[in-house]
Amino acid sequence: MPAVEEVVRLAREQGLVPVGEVLPGVRWDLRYAGAGNFAGEALYPAGMPCLLAGGTAERLAEARAELLGRGCDLLIWDGWRPAEAAERLWDLVRDPRYVAQPGAGGRWSWHCYGRAVDVTLTDLEGRELEMPSDLDDFGVAGAAEYAGGDAVVAERLGWLQGAMTGAGFRVLASEWWHFSDPVVPVPERPVRAADCGMVIPVRGADQ
Ligand SMILES: [Zn+2]
Looking at residue 112, which CATH number applies to its domain? Predict the structure, then answer.
């Protein structure tokens, strides 16, 4: 993988920016860069920067400002998802209930355009706060409409959703952590890792 500076330079040509540039000090834990995701293997190159479309990052900064005012902060679980990683995820899962088939009907996940973000909340020191579920819980607990009995969790989820929708994001009914930035027109094609000089991991190559 080329130096991160070169990846960022190439990503900028695709309209992507490093989130830390627009949201100073924001934390991320790209769950698809390690095995801690429901596919159970790394789909992103290790050390991949957290990138979003420029306008999406600005909207996220607006949402974050409101959350900081409430004494909590964002932790980003996913931002731009390389098109190759979406293809790999589909190969692994092949179930349209959980993963959108890449390119089906000419559409890709908004993550592949850098226009969706998966987020949760932390305290101001970066300690994760209890939320309805972990990332990629596709059961009832993952629903954006909270059905649990914890009033504190319900209130926090309300803060997150209020801040995000207030900044222009859309909620996804089946995934409380996922927010998309419905900017039109849809870009012509998703951004590939190769566009940014990266190659996604090959299954089993590093194990
Ligand atoms: Zn998502």
Answer: 3.30.1380.10
